[in-house]
C-alpha cells in the first residue's frame, strides 16, 4: 500500500473544514440521493417483484416504465387531501414530516466515498462525521417511528391506532437486537464514527496460523457474521418491510397507520418508507460490507479505492441490499404478530448476547500465548460439547405402528385381516362396462372408443 | 478553581453555540411549560419529547456527544415511546379533568416541587463548590466515549452494576406481578369443551354477531331499538301474532 493510497481514508480531523457552499452541495446531494433512490426504488421494487411473479410490472410510462413513480407522485399531489373529523389536526399534519425528516437525516453521516477533490478542495465524500455517528443513526431510526405511531394515533380511527401500537412495540423490540449487533462492530473497530468503521474494515488484519501470514477478510459481514445477519433482520423490522410489515398489514389492518392518510401526506409516508430502506441499506453497507471499499476482484486494480470510483462500489452494494429487501418481500409471507415478537425477544436477543460474550472472550485472550489460548477456548468448548451430548432428551417415545400394536395383542384375540390386504375389484364394475352400448355407431370405426 | 472558573470559561461561547442555544433554550422551556399545561396526555408527552430533544442537543453542544445521543435514543426513543404506547391504549379522548380528587393536591404538588428543586439546587451547588474543574480538553483527552467508558468501568463500576441490578429486579418484579400463569389442567381439551357446550343451561348455537340486538335469529323476534325497547316494525306483518311462553321469552344464554 502506498502512502497516497492511505491518505484516501478520511479521519475525524478531516471534517468540519469545508466552506459553506461545499457543505450545502453535500447536503443537497444527500437529500437528492434519498429522493432519487425513492423514485428509482419504487420502480425497481415493482419491476423485480413483477419479474419474480412472472408479469411485466410497470412498463408504460417512460423507458422501461422508469417514470411510473414520478407519474404516481404527481397524481398523489393532485388528489384531495382528506382530514378526518376525529383527527388531532396538528399531530396528524406533523406525523408524516417527522418520518421523512428522520429518514433523510440519517443519510448525513453515511460515507459515500473517500477523500476527493471538489473545486480544489480536498474533502471527504460525506456530509459530516462525529465520534458517535452510529448512535446518531440509531437515534434517527428510533425517532422515525414517532411519525408512524403519532400518525396512527392522530387519525382518530381504530385500524391506524392498532398499526401505530404495533409499530411502537416492534420498534422497541427490534432496536434492542439492532443495537446489540452494532456493539460487536464497535468492539472490533474501536470507534463509533462511520468513516472510522469503514477505514477499520479496509486493512484486513494479518492472522498468524502455524507461522503463515494469512490476510483475514476485512469486511465485518464475514468477521462478525452473526451480528451481520441479526442486524439485517432487525433492519427489516425497523423499516416495516415485509415479512415484518405488521404496522401496515393490509390483510389485517386495511393499511395500518396510513389508512386515513391521502394525497401528499400519504406520499410523504411512502417516501419515508423507501428512504428508510435505502438509508438502512447504506448503513448496513457501511457497518458490515466495507462501505465504499471495492470488493475483492476489483481491488487487484491499484486505483479502485481512490477518487470517485468508490461511490460506484458503494451504490452497487446498496442496490444489492435493496434487492435483498425486495426479494424478501417477494418470497416470505407475513409473520403473525406473536411469532414476530417471540422471534425478536427469544431468538435474536439471546443469540446476540451469547455472541457478544464469545466475541469479547476471544478478544480478551488475543495477546495470550498459544497454550493459554488453547486452554481458554478448549475448556468452554469441551464443556459445551459434553453438555450437548449428555443433555437429557425430552423427546417422547415413538408411538408403535399399527402392525406393532396388532402383533402385541395377547394370544387368542379376535382375528384381524392382514393390514396389506388387497381387496379384489368388484365383478359388477366389469359387467357395467361390458353392457354399455358403443357411444357413436355411425362413425364407430375407432376401436379405442368404448 | 471553583464555579467561577466554569462561569468564566462559559463566558466565551463560540457564535454557533450561542445561536443554537438561544434557539433551542426557549423551545425547551416552551416544551416544559406545554407538558404541564397540555390537557391531552399524548400532547403532554409530545411536549416532553421536544424538551428532551433540546436537552440532547445541549449535551452535544457542551462537548458531550455520547450523553446527548444516549439521551435521544434512550429517553426520547425508547422510554417516551413506551409512555406513548400506554397513553394510546388509554384512549385518545381521555383528558385530565380539572376537578381535584384530593383536597389541596395542587398546592401540595407545587410546594413539594419547589422543595425538590431547592434540594437539587443546593446539592448541585455543594458538589460544584468542592469539585475542581479541569476543563474539557483534559476530560475528553482520549475521546468522549472512551473517557466515559473508563470512568464507568473503573471508578463507578459498583454504582453502575448496582443500578443495572436494580433495573433488572424492577423488570422481573413487574413481570411476576403482571404474568398470569395458566396451569395445564385449566386448559380444556376438545371433549371437555364439547361437553361444556352442550351442558344444560348453555346455548350451543353460535352467538349473534356484533351489533345484533336480537336474542334469537328467528324472523318473528322483534328487533331492539338503541334504547333497549322492542320495535314492531322489524317483524313482517304477515306473521301470526301469538303470545310467547315464559321459556321462549327468557334469554337463551347468548349473553354469556
Describe this structure in words.
The complex is a heterodimer of chains A (450) and B (256). Chain A is mainly alpha-helical and 450 residues long. Chain A is built from 17 helices and four strands. Chain A has helices at residues 3-6, 20-52, 68-77, 89-105, 133-154, 158-189, 194-202, 220-223, 225-238, 250-253, 263-288, 296-299, 309-331, 337-364, 370-390, 402-407, 427-435; strands spanning 113-118, 121-125, 206-209, 212-215. A two-stranded antiparallel ribbon of chain A has the order 1-2. A two-stranded antiparallel ribbon of chain A has the order 3-4. Chain A is globular, with a radius of gyration of 31 Å. The model of chain A is unreliable at 1-6 (pLDDT under 50). Chain B is elongated and about 95 Å long. The longest helix of chain B has 26 residues, at 65-90. In chain B, helix 2 (15-37) runs antiparallel to helix 3 (41-61) and helix 3 (41-61) packs antiparallel against helix 4. Chain B contains ten helices and no strands. With 256 residues, chain B is mostly helical. The chains are: A mainly alpha (450), B mainly alpha (256). The A-B interface holds A 88, 91, 130-132, 135-136, 138-139, 142-143, 145-146, 149-150, 152-153, 156, 161, 164-165, 168-169, 171-172, 175, 192 and B 40, 42-43, 46, 49, 65-66, 69-70, 72-73, 76-78, 81-82, 84-85, 88-89, 92, 143-145.
Question: What is the string of helix and strand elements of chain A?
Answer: HHHHEEHHHEEHHHHHHHHHH
End-to-end separation of chain B in angstroms reads 76 Å
Q: Helicity level of chain A, as a percent range?
A: 55-70%
Assign an overall shape of chain B: elongated
- Helicity level of chain B: 55-70%
Strand percent estimate of chain B: under 5%
**Number of extended strands of chain A:** 4
Q: What general outline of chain A do the C-alpha atoms trace?
A: globular
Average pLDDT over all residues of chain B: 78
Alpha plus pi helix count of chain A: 17
Radius of gyration of chain B: 32 Å
Number of H- or I-type helical stretches of chain B? 10
Give the neighbour order of strands across the main sheet of chain A. 1-2
Characterize the main sheet of chain A.
2 strands, antiparallel
Largest sheet of chain B: none
Amino acid at each position: 500500500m502506498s502512502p497516497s493510497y492511505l491518505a484516501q481514508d478520511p479521519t475525524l480531523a478531516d471534517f468540519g473544514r469545508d466552506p459553506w457552499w461545499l457543505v450545502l452541495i453535500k447536503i443537497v446531494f444527500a437529500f437528492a440521493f434519498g429522493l432519487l433512490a425513492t423514485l428509482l426504488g419504487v420502480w425497481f421494487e415493482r419491476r423485480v417483484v413483477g419479474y419474480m411473479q412472472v408479469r411485466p410490472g410497470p412498463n408504460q410510462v417512460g423507458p422501461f416504465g422508469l417514470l411510473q413513480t414520478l407519474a404516481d407522485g404527481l397524481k398523489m399531489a393532485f388528489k384531495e387531501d382528506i382530514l378526518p373529523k376525529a383527527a388531532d389536526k396538528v399531530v396528524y399534519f406533523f406525523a408524516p414530516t417527522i418520518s421523512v425528516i428522520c429518514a433523510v437525516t440519517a443519510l448525513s453521516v453515511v460515507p459515500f466515498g473517500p477523500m476527493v477533490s471538489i473545486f480544489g478542495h480536498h474533502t471527504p465524500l460525506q456530509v459530516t462525521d462525529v465520534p458517535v455517528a452510529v448512535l446518531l443513526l440509531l437515534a434517527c431510526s428510533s425517532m422515525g417511528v414517532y411519525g408512524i405511531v403519532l400518525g396512527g394515533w392522530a387519525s382518530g380511527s381504530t385500524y391506524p391506532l392498532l398499526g401505530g401500537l404495533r409499530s411502537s412495540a416492534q420498534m422497541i423490540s427490534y432496536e434492542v437486537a439492532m443495537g446489540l449487533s452494532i456493539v460487536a462492530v464497535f468492539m472490533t473497530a474501536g470507534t463509533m464514527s462511520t468513516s472510522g468503521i469503514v477505514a477499520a474494515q479496509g486493512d484486513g488484519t494479518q492472522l498468524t496460523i502455524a507461522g503463515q501470514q494469512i490476510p483475514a477478510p476485512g469486511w465485518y459481514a464475514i468477521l462478525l457474521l452473526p451480528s451481520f445477519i441479526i442486524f439485517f433482520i432487525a433492519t427489516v423490522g425497523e423499516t416495516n418491510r415485509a415479512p415484518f410489515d405488521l404496522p401496515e398489514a393490509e390483510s389485517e389492518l386495511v393499511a395500518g397507520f396510513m389508512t386515513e392518510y391521502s394525497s401528499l401526506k400519504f406520499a410523504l409516508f411512502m417516501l419515508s418508507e423507501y428512504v428508510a430502506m435505502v438509508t438502512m441499506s447504506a448503513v448496513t453497507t457501511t457497518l458490515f460490507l466495507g462501505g465504499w471499499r471495492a470488493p475483492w476482484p476489483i481491488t487487484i486494480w491499484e486505483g479502485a479505492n481512490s477518487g470517485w470510483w468508490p461511490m460506484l462500489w458503494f451504490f452497487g452494494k446498496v442496490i444489492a441490499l435493496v434487492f435483498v429487501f425486495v426479494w424478501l418481500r417477494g418470497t416470505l409471507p407475513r409473520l403473525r404478530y406473536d411469532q414476530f415478537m417471540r422471534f425478536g425477544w427469544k431468538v435474536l436477543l439471546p443469540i446476540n448476547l451469547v455472541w457478544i460474550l464469545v466475541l469479547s472472550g476471544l478478544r480478551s485472550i488475543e495477546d495470550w500465548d498459544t497454550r493459554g489460548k488453547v486452554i481458554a477456548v478448549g475448556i468452554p468448548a469441551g464443556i459445551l460439547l459434553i453438555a450437548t451430548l449428555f443433555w437429557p432428551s425430552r423427546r417422547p417415545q415413538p408411538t408403535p405402528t399399527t402392525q406393532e400394536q396388532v402383533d402385541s395383542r395377547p394370544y387368542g384375540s379376535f382375528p384381524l385381516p392382514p393390514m396389506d390386504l388387497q381387496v379384489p375389484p368388484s365383478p359388477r364394475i366389469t359387467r357395467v362396462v361390458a353392457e354399455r352400448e358403443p357411444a357413436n355407431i355411425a362413425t364407430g370405426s375407432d376401436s379405442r372408443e368404448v | 478553581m471553583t464555579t467561577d472558573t466554569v462561569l468564566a470559561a462559559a463566558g466565551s461561547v463560540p457564535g454557533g453555540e450561542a445561536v443554537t442555544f438561544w434557539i433551542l433554550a426557549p423551545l425547551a422551556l416552551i416544551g416544559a411549560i406545554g407538558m404541564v399545561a397540555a390537557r391531552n396526555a399524548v400532547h403532554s408527552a409530545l411536549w416532553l419529547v421536544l424538551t428532551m430533544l433540546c436537552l440532547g442537543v445541549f449535551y452535544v453542544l457542551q462537548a458531550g456527544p455520547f450523553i446527548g445521543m444516549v439521551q435521544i435514543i434512550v429517553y426520547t426513543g425508547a422510554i417516551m415511546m413506551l409512555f406513548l404506547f400506554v397513553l394510546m391504549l388509554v384512549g385518545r379522548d381521555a383528558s385530565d379533568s380539572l376537578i381535584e380528587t384530593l383536597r389541596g393536591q395542587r398546592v401540595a404538588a407545587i410546594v413539594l416541587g419547589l422543595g425538590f428543586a431547592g434540594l437539587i439546587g443546593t446539592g448541585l451547588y455543594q458538589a460544584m463548590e468542592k469539585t475542581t474543574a479541569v476543563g474539557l480538553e483534559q476530560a475528553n483527552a482520549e475521546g468522549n466515549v472512551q473517557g466515559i467508558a473508563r470512568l464507568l468501568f473503573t471508578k463507578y463500576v459498583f454504582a453502575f452494576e448496582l443500578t443495572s441490578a436494580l433495573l433488572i429486579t424492577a423488570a422481573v418484579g413487574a413481570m411476576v406481578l403482571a404474568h398470569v400463569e395458566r396451569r395445564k389442567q385449566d386448559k380444556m381439551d376438545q371433549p371437555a369443551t364439547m361437553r361444556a357446550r352442550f351442558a344444560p343451561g348453555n346455548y350451543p348455537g353460535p352467538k349473534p354477531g356484533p351489533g345484533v340486538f336480537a336474542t334469537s335469529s328467528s324472523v318473528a323476534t322483534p328487533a331492539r331499538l338503541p334504547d333497549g325497547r322492542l320495535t314492531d316494525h322489524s317483524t313482517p306483518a304477515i306473521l301470526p301474532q301469538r303470545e310467547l311462553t315464559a321459556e321462549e321469552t327468557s334469554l337463551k344464554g347468548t349473553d354469556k
